[in-house]
Amino acid sequence: MMNKMITMILSFLLVMPVLAEEVDKTLDAAADGQVNVSNIAGSVTVTGWTRNAVEVTGTLGRNVEELVFERNKDKVTIKVKVPRRGGRGIDSDLHISVPQGSSIDVSGVSADISVTDVMGEQRLHTVSGDVSTESAGSDVTAESVSGDVEIDGDKSDTETTAITVSGDVTLFRVSGTVSAESVTGEVIVDEGSFSRVELSVVNGELLFRAELRQDGKLSAETVNGDVDVELVGDVSAKIDVSTINGRIRNCFGPEPERTSKYAPGWSLSFTEGDGDGRIDISTVNGGVGLCRK
């Protein structure tokens, strides 16, 4: 009877699900050091704080091998190690606090990434997931294959790169230089002041509503979608606009012309102000709006 009961207990323990492991670890860190994070699946939330320490809390998936959390000089590494073949039960949700002056490099495969109050340079990469961050005086690169990318700046000059294949790119109050692209989705740049802008969409609309500086360059192109450019403040640039299947609406005065009497297409070329800068706008299937806000 006793042996039967022991067998039943062992069988029960074997079929019980392994619960996710809670994490709560802290390491001293440099005020302006480097923090690298790798989490294949789940989520990563990074927040800047005033302490010279890195703290990791959250949960590890039941099949995670271990959490690597170590410091080498001014570099802190956080890595969720999973079985070589991956599999189920590896989703981990990490909440990471870092010194505000840190530079961060966060990567994932099937993971969302969210960053707030981090002042250093940011490199954020995921395959399937959304990326959301704040930009405050340092360069930001944010990339996803299948997911939205959103960057909220403070109008300080930075170099911003935002790329997604399937998803929207939204940049609000960033300034300086920007490169943004999406294959399927919208690209929106709202507010800010720029010296160089490169925007590209294959299937989706494109909106630029900001200031282009005196010697600034703006390139905006789509294949299937409308382009809406609203320039804030004084404009001084040579401007070229073209569309094959669509119309051009120009609030600066000059009228667009047909590119050919035998084929569709409209084009527009003129100089506004002293022509110090350069604006090139093109779309294949879509309309173009060019105005001053």
Portion in helices: under 10%
Secondary-structure-derived class? mainly beta
**Sequence of secondary-structure elements:** HEEEEEEEEEEEEEEEEEEEEEEEEE
Identify the overall geometry. Answer: elongated
Main β-sheet, in a few words? 25 strands, mixed
Could you name the ranges where pLDDT drops below 50 across 5 or more consecutive residues? 5-10, 12-18
Radius of gyration, Cα only, in angstroms?
25 Å
N- to C-terminal separation?
85 Å
Give the rounded overall mean pLDDT: 92
What is the beta-strand fraction? over 45%
Count of separate DSSP helical elements: 1
Number of extended strands: 25
The total tally of domains equals: 2
Structure in words:
The structure is a single chain. The chain is mainly beta. It has two domains: 100 residues, no CATH class; 164 residues, no CATH class. It is built from one helix and 25 strands. It has a 25-stranded mixed β-sheet that branches. A hairpin with a 2-residue loop joins strand 5 and strand 6. The radius of gyration is 25 Å and the shape is elongated. About 4% of the residues have low confidence.
